[in-house]
Design goal:
Number of helices: 3
Order of helices and strands: HHHEEEE
CATH architecture: Roll
Mean pLDDT: 92
Strand content: 35-45%
CATH topology: Nuclear Transport Factor 2, Chain: A
Low-confidence stretches: none
Shape: globular
Number of domains: 1
Number of strands: 4
Strand order of the largest sheet: 1-2-3-4
Structural class: alpha+beta
Helix content: 10-25%
Largest sheet: 4 strands, antiparallel
């Protein structure tokens, strides 16, 4: 008898099937934070179709989003802040990854909009570095 194996979600959830998996299968995230987490998981799982579908058409790149030769391995996510104001939201996060044998981090404040009842990624910026 085969046992169901629980696979941890890349975004930090205990179970991919109960966390970001349903979004990757077509369910709509209820919040911008859930969308951001599912997009992180899509990067980790190299799911180009989901990244494209969850990106607002006004800012979505025309070409490929993922580069098969980038060698990036996403290794962790920390959400620092989530703010929603009606149909707009921001999510500040730190995503950790490895590339070329070196650990790196991406600190971003992403903007999201709700269109036709679905949250979409609009764009992201990097916070200013703290002054000494």
């Amino acid at each position: 008898m085969a046992r169901n194996r629980i696979v941890a979600c890349p975004c930090g959830g205990a179970d991919y099937a109960g966390c970001c998996g349903p979004y990757h299968d077509g369910a709509a995230p209820a919040t911008a934070e859930a969308l951001m987490r599912s997009r992180y998981s899509a990067y980790a799982r190299r799911d180009e179709a989901y990244l494209r579908a969850s990106w607002h058409p006004d800012t979505r790149p025309a070409g490929p989003i993922l580069d098969d030769g980038d060698g990036i391995k996403w290794v962790g996510l920390e959400v620092l802040r989530h703010q929603q104001d009606g149909e707009q939201a921001t999510v500040e996060f730190v995503a950790r990854y490895k590339t070329g044998g070196r650990a790196r981090r991406l600190h971003e404040i992403s903007r999201f909009v709700r269109a036709d009842g679905r949250w979409l990624y609009l764009d992201g910026g990097h916070p200013a570095a703290p002054e000494d």
